[in-house]
Amino acid sequence: MSAPREPRLLYEPVLLRDDEEGIVYQAGAFSTEAEAQKVIDIWRAEGRREPTAINLVTVYESAEQWEADR
């Protein structure tokens, strides 16, 4: 049996509500921050003016792995 893999990180570009208190739209998840930033840049080029963010999400293989990482 192989050892558990390290958790990996995903970057999610999101449009936020104007008050920045919630997500309006999530545009998928990317393996690098640079790719997530490209989505935000595309939104800006298209004229979108909502607040944006890049959420960083840790992907675990199990609840036990998550618990050990807390």
SSE topology sketch:
Blueprint: E1 8-16, E2 23-26, H1 33-45, E3 52-59, H2 63-69
Antiparallel strand pairs: 1-2, 1-3
Quick overview:
This protein is an alpha+beta fold and 70 residues long. The protein has helices spanning 33-45, 63-69, and strands spanning 8-16, 23-26, 52-59.
List the defining traits of the structure above.
alpha+beta; three-stranded antiparallel beta sheet; elongated
Mean pLDDT: 93
Query: Can you give the helix content as a percent range?
Result: 25-40%
Strand order of the largest sheet: 2-1-3
General form: elongated
Mind summarizing the main beta sheet?
A: 3 strands, antiparallel
Distance between the termini: 24 Å
Please identify the structural class as seen in this structure.
alpha+beta
> Uncertain runs with pLDDT below 50, 5 residues or more?
none
How large is the share of residues in beta strands?
Answer: 25-35%
Fold and architecture overview:
By secondary structure, this protein is α+β, with helices and mostly antiparallel strands. The protein is 29% helix and 30% strand. The chain contains two helices and three strands, in the order E-E-H-E-H. The protein has helices at residues 33-45, 63-69, and strands at residues 8-16, 23-26, 52-59. A three-stranded antiparallel sheet has the order 2-1-3, with helices on one face. The radius of gyration is 15 Å and the shape is elongated. It starts with 7 loop residues before the first strand and ends with a helix. This is SPOR domain-containing protein.
